[in-house]
Amino acid sequence: MNATTKKSGTALSLAALVFLLAACGGGSSSSGSGSSSGATGVNGAFAGDWVSASTNNGELAGNFNASGSTVTATVTRHTVSACPLSSFRGTWNESSSSLDGTFTGSNSTVAWNAKLVGGRLSGPYSVTSGGCAGDTGTITLNRG
């Protein structure tokens, strides 16, 4: 075997090796650790206003905690004494940045459908049972 044939054979072997490595996925892989806010966007303290279509206006605040698509909260302040609230449980929808759930208290149940825009959760509510049953309006809570 002469030197020219030897060089050609080595070049062909290297080309074949490169082709095999590329075909077998010899490149890098992703660990899937990209960031996604998920329901964590609603984690933390929120405070704001309960604005009623009738006369039950007041303040509302709570500490929200997300786990997967489930969101819970402990109400830390609610100034509408006719329908006291103590907790929240709802479902986060990532694709629409919305939170649908229910506030509950000693004698009240309040359905709330909110949308998260920036650091603000806002949307309509409807009191379904208790001292303020039938009341509707808007709850707007700001982060912090």
What can you tell me about this protein's structure?
By secondary structure, the protein is mainly beta. It has a single domain (40-143), classed as Beta Barrel (Lipocalin), CATH 2.40.128.120. It contains one helix and eight strands, in the order H-E-E-E-E-E-E-E-E. The chain has an eight-stranded antiparallel β-barrel with strand order 1-2-3-4-5-6-7-8. Strand 6 and strand 7 form a beta hairpin. The N and C termini lie far apart (80 Å). Residues 10-37 have low confidence and may be disordered.
Average pLDDT figure: 79
Please tell me how large the radius of gyration is: 29 Å
Task: List the domain count as a whole number.
Answer: 1
Determine the structural class based on helices, strands and strand pairing. mainly beta
Q: Tell me the span between the first and last alpha carbons.
A: 80 Å
Major sheet strand order? 1-2-3-4-5-6-7-8
- Quick one: biggest sheet? 8 strands, antiparallel, barrel
Query: At CATH's second level, what is the architecture?
Result: Beta Barrel
Low-confidence spans? 10-37
The percent range for helix content is 10-25%
Strand percent estimate: over 45%
What name does CATH use for the topology?
A: Lipocalin
CATH superfamily: Quinohemoprotein amine dehydrogenase alpha subunit, domain 2
**Count of alpha/pi helices:** 1
Sum up the overall morphology in one term.
globular
Count every beta strand, where a strand is a DSSP E run of 2 or more residues.
8
Write down the secondary-structure element order.
Answer: HEEEEEEEE
What is the C-level CATH assignment?
Mainly Beta
